[in-house]
Amino acid sequence: MKSKISLIVTTLLFISTHAAQAAPIYTFPVAGCEVTYSRYHHDYPAADIFGKKGCAFVSPIAGVVDEVNTVDRWRGKTNIGADRGGLSVSVIGDDGLRYYGSHLSKIESKIVPGYRVTTGEKLGEIGSTGSARGTKAHLHFGISYPTEKGIWWIRRGVGLESKGKTPPFKYLQAWQAGKDLKPRVVVPAVLPPEPKK
Ligand SMILES: [Zn+2]
Predict the structure, then answer these.
(1) Span from the CA of 193 to the centroid of ligand 1 (angstroms)
(2) Which DSSP helix (H) or strand (E) runs through 12?
(3) Ligand 1: distance of its center to the CA of 19 in Å?
């Protein structure tokens, strides 16, 4: 019995060591630029990653492009929720989660719904479109569970971990440090209704 257990433990150790040495599947969503970001985000859990306009927004994981918005329709007077992101891209990662980046200044021409991306592939460039007009260029980055198209209040980012309140900050830090860490996303039984803000 003892030797059986030690065999299992050895096998598990081998598997976990092996997994740790495999190429990372996640990467930080901004490449080739100095950035700053914090744990805090206004109103709901997400992350604003500040960097120079034109910094590359890259896919944090391999997956399939979901929604792409190439036209900035946002107006301050109406402040329509679906328009706040300006130019934006979302990707359904191979981990089953959705990754969203918005306020972009540019989207790569090949980035269209259904296009398959690899980890670190360039999706667009950082800017200040949508409701970020007039502010410092940044990438609004949100992690969520997939929904039907147009559900902007989920797509923009939801709280993570068991309580569904944690922002993406710790995952961004892990990926920036080269650690492979899968976000824990709680899917509610009922889709939350469209909020006022
Ligand atoms: Zn934001």
Answers:
(1) 20
(2) helix 2-21
(3) 33
Gap from CA of 47 to ligand 1 centroid (Å): 6
Q: Kindly report, residue by residue over 37-78, the tens digit of the pLDDT.
A: 999 999 999 999 999 999 999 999 999 999 999 999 999 999
Q: Is 124 helix (H, G, I), strand (E, B) or coil?
A: strand
Distance CA 187, CA 92 (A): 15
User: What is the Å distance from ligand 1's center to 169 Cα?
Assistant: 12
Q: What are phi and psi of 169, to 5 degrees?
A: -45, -50
Distance CA 86, CA 68 (A): 10
Phi-psi region at 32: left, alpha or beta (left = phi > 0; alpha = psi -120 to 50) = left
* Domains of the chain, each with CATH number or no CATH: 25-174 (2.70.70.10)
Beta bridge partners of 126: 104
| Segment 112-135, tens digit of pLDDT | 999 999 999 999 999 999 999 999
